[in-house]
Amino acid sequence: MTGLALDEHRDGGTRVYSPGTTEVVYRRILKSVTVFVVLFFGYFFIQVIQSSFLGFQTAGLKFFTDSLWNFPNLVSIWPLVAGTLVTSALALLIAIPLGIAASIVIAFVLPYYLRTTVITVVGMLAVIPSIIYGVWGLTFLVRWSSYTAEPWLSKTFHGAWPFNGIPRGSGILVGSIVLAVMVLPTIVAVTVDVFNGLPKDIFEGSYALGATKAQVIRKTILPASRTGIIGACTFALARAMGETVALATVLGGTQLSHYPNSLLAEGSTLASTIVSAFGGGFGSETSELYCLGVFLLVLIFAISLIARRMVKENVTT
Question: How far apart are alpha carbons 150 and 165 in whole angstroms?
Answer without folding.
Answer: 10
